[in-house]
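Quality-control log, excerpt.
Job 1 of 2 completed; input and output follow.
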Amino acid sequence: MSPPVPAVPAVPAVPVPAGPVISIRGLKKAFGDREILRGVDLDVSAAENVVVLGRSGTGKSVLIKLLVGLLTPDAGVATVLGQDVHALKPAALDALRRRIGFSFQNSALYDSMSVAQNLAFPLTMSAHGVSAAEVRDRVADALEAVGLAHAIGQMPSELSGGQRKRVGIARTLILRPEIMLYDEPTAGLDPVTSTEINELINQVQQAYHTTSIIITHDLTCARSTGQRVAMLLDGQVSRVGTFDEVFASDDPRIASFYAYNFTNSEHA
């Protein structure tokens, strides 16, 4: 069994704007004739973990790509940290992205770089004037926070899937983001490792005071990490509440999703 995930060191809270940190209104996106998002509405408050839950291919990842300006909506507005994402000019959009951590489904590590180099890369690119000693210290601290201090000199190819996920989260945390976006954080992991990643997501929120959106179709992840759950069905958020409130619905689509999650072994 893997060792317990160590506690993440706390950092001072950063003041946030009044009102929702993330506010989505009427967001629509289609690819050709295929409508993916059909008018999504959702608010996320400061230091809140919100899970966006839905089957694979329902537009969950499209939604968070819209939030960081990687895609452009066909209609609607996404306001992040008080700024209309899609009205920003490139320099302002880059500045906003530096305040957002994006944990990719595949961890998005550079295979030609060591673990230490992967973590140092965004810091040296984004934080001008940081000394080499400070880079080393922050890399070491970030790896300690995710329980991988021993892996500092390893290559990504030498890591397990769960370790790669942790390194990806550590690389994101090194810039101390105000918002964390997790794209299928437990996809492809065994149950024990998934539990460890869920615990790490909660520890990150508590220690770094992050506002987080967690994209998943994993009900265990949703129950473990989500203070609120937003159910995405047919391109819209059909229900928002606690995990139990969402699944108390009589909507047959929600009931079938619950059954699908535990009976379909190929949904990942």
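Job 2 of 2 completed; input and output follow.
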Amino acid sequence: MKIAIIGAGLAGLSCALTLEKHGHSADIFEKQRSVGFDLTIAELITPILHSPIDDFIKFLSESHGIHLKPTSNIQRIHVHSPNETAYVEGNLGFINMRGNHKEAYEKQLAEQLTASPIHNQHVTPKEISKDYTHVVVATGEPLDTQQFQPFHIEFKSTFAGAVVNGNFIRNEVHAWFDTELAPKGMLYLLPHSDSEATLVLVYPQYDDQSVQDKKKLWKESVKRVSQTLGQELSTKEDLSIRDYVVGKCDYPRIGNIFFAGNCMGAIKPFLGFGQTGSILSGIYAAQDLCGLGDYDKLCKPLFKDYQNSLRYRKTIEKLSNDQLDLVTKSLRVNAVERVFTGENWGLLKVLSHLLRPFS
């Protein structure tokens, strides 16, 4: 068996690492000059997105021998709507770095590999298929999937953000939902030190929102966050992304070609994070290659999570600011808070009750 992996992101590196742990090797092709991407950004891994796994970092270490070191754990998530604020607390997951940061998860995975990715190599599955028995497509580009099968695009997103300086509590995350500030989207702040955090505004590019003034929304976002936190924030390392695709393919595997990460459909539409799905899809592809499972069957729970996440996103997108205030206010009810902080809880289960009147 001669295996090629296209893309040295979370999915591709997780696949390569799992293959090595079972005695196999792969050639890893990466079109960029190094592992990771050019931006510095914090993201989160939380059981909100991958229930019933309470601790994904522990799960990866104990079940798959993949060891990741987060920047910090999350003890409290603050939710802000236009006129209400609430929070939930407990062991709510982890904050980690991505991209070109020295502690980015991509770099941590690469350090655990014996083999080194082949950098500055832009290849396509069709170009290399004659030289390899199996190819794993993990480029993060849905267009690479569309060469072989439909990739169903639910929406494209616009991101505006920056690394900001201020005074932060490292274990506390903030999220704002406001139809005027983040139309059908959200604004979130993830600290990665006591004085530095990632602040991101993200919203979908539907036809009626394609003309949104991103600069104006971003300016208002920084103002709102400063007011909420009671401090002035200074920004650096701006990030700007447009046409970021959220969607999924029909078939995780076609013949001896595997589609992993964003090429499969790892991004959860509800909050827009895809780290858990990317890592798991890479592991599952390697397990299939090692004769330890069937990739199509292993990916079914990922597709189910995707559909559930999409359903709740569509419901929240319909809410007015007054309705967002009602949902936020309900988070302060003790019974609801206990559901969040109990074992095997999941935000989607809670939302199924909170959003039922609006569905």
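Post-run check on job 2. Residues 3-358 form a domain with the FAD/NAD(P)-binding domain fold (CATH 3.50.50.60).
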